[in-house]
């Protein structure tokens, strides 16, 4: 039998990337990180915190993300005995909806939506912050298998032991539902000090609404639709935008997706230049602080305990651990640092 040689074809354009033995493209993980950073830096929406710069100290194994300063801080702390009024929750939640729609349009899943990641701008509108565990995706949705974010805000499907893929968009909707519940009730719908019991409640306990404060039936209906345990039956973002509570009975329609979103594109040059390398970043911060204080004494000379506390309070709100643990630690560590006195330093040091 004669051997068969298929006809040759001239290849035009870019050659496909080299592939591993399993047929998947070989990708440098750092390249993907740089691409995600380049996209985050170009996000431009009134309900999303602006990423100003990303710094890299070659001596460290970390990136430092510099966001715009919002001095009014997070929208609320929970638990609280002073929840938002339904009218105020309505205004804030509409901001969240538009911000999340914009992120999803840019193919970004936030994965850690909660009140402490919703900051108040000077104009009184909400801006979504903390992209420490966000995911970029291709196609129509992110199909996730791992867990990330704050346990009390995780969707039931993310806590499954089977590790089946689940929808990133639906998980964000669940976290928005938990957040909306917290807005008006000042507490979480599923709570326990034991994280194993907490996960079981999220997966299996029915949703209930306290009799006080009074909440309208439309709002309860929306929260119930968002906290549907089966993600296939959970309300979607387009349907949330048209819900009677969100539109106040069709009186106040939200902007369409086309009006709210413009797709971001990044160039190779933007990806390559998205991180600024600054050797000895701590030294740079020290010098700037000394110049600001008009003193050449080290303003960070403090005992080890305070240095450890300062470092720990700098963790992202997305750091692992139960929500209750975070709140307890926050109360104990978010204390005012003492005034720093100048210290005489001997010449031989």
From TrEMBL:
<keyword id="KW-0547">Nucleotide-binding</keyword>
<dbReference type="InterPro" id="IPR000719">
    <property type="entry name" value="Prot_kinase_dom"/>
</dbReference>
<keyword id="KW-0418">Kinase</keyword>
<dbReference type="GO" id="GO:0035556">
    <property type="term" value="P:intracellular signal transduction"/>
</dbReference>
<dbReference type="GO" id="GO:0005737">
    <property type="term" value="C:cytoplasm"/>
</dbReference>
<feature type="region of interest" description="Disordered">
    <location>
        <begin position="1"/>
        <end position="28"/>
    </location>
</feature>
<feature type="domain" description="Protein kinase">
    <location>
        <begin position="1"/>
        <end position="246"/>
    </location>
</feature>
<dbReference type="GO" id="GO:0004683">
    <property type="term" value="F:calcium/calmodulin-dependent protein kinase activity"/>
</dbReference>
<keyword id="KW-0067">ATP-binding</keyword>
<dbReference type="InterPro" id="IPR011009">
    <property type="entry name" value="Kinase-like_dom_sf"/>
</dbReference>
<dbReference type="GO" id="GO:0005524">
    <property type="term" value="F:ATP binding"/>
</dbReference>
<dbReference type="Pfam" id="PF00069">
    <property type="entry name" value="Pkinase"/>
</dbReference>
<dbReference type="InterPro" id="IPR008271">
    <property type="entry name" value="Ser/Thr_kinase_AS"/>
</dbReference>
<dbReference type="GO" id="GO:0005516">
    <property type="term" value="F:calmodulin binding"/>
</dbReference>
<keyword id="KW-0808">Transferase</keyword>
<protein>
    <submittedName>
        <fullName>Calcium/calmodulin-dependent protein kinase kinase 1</fullName>
    </submittedName>
</protein>
């Amino acid at each position: 039998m004669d051997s068969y040689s298929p006809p040759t074809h001239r290849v035009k354009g870019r050659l496909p990337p080299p592939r591993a033995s399993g047929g998947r493209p070989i990708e440098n993980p750092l390249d993907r990180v740089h691409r995600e950073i380049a996209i985050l830096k170009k996000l431009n929406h009134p309900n999303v915190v602006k990423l100003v710069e990303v710094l890299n100290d070659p001596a460290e194994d970390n990136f430092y993300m510099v966001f715009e300063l919002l001095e009014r801080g997070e929208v609320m702390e929970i638990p609280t005995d002073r929840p938002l009024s339904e009218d105020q929750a309505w205004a804030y939640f509409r901001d969240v909806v538009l911000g999340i729609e914009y992120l999803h349009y840019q193919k970004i899943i936030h994965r850690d939506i909660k009140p402490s990641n919703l900051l108040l701008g000077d104009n009184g509108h909400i801006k979504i912050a903390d992209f420490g565990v966000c995911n970029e995706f291709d196609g129509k949705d992110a199909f996730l298998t791992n867990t990330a974010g704050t346990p009390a805000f995780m969707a039931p499907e993310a806590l499954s032991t089977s590790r089946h893929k689940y929808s990133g968009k639906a998980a964000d909707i669940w976290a928005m539902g938990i957040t909306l519940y917290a807005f008006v009730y000042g507490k979480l719908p599923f709570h326990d000090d034991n994280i194993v019991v907490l996960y079981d409640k999220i997966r299996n306990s029915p949703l209930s609404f306290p009799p006080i404060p009074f909440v309208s039936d439309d709002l309860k209906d929306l929260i119930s639709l968002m906290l549907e345990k089966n993600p296939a039956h959970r309300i979607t973002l387009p349907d949330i935008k048209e819900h009677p509570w969100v539109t106040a009975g069709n009186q106040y329609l939200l902007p369409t997706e086309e009006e709210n979103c413009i797709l971001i594109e990044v160039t190779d040059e933007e990806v390559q230049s998205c991180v600024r390398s600054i050797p000895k970043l701590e030294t740079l911060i020290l010098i700037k602080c000394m110049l600001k204080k008009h003193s050449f004494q080290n303003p960070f000379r403090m005992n080890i305990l305070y240095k450890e506390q300062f470092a720990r309070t700098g963790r992202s709100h997305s750091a692992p651990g139960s929500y209750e643990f975070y709140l307890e630690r926050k109360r104990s560590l978010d204390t005012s640092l003492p005034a720093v006195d100048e210290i005489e330093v001997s010449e031989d040091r």
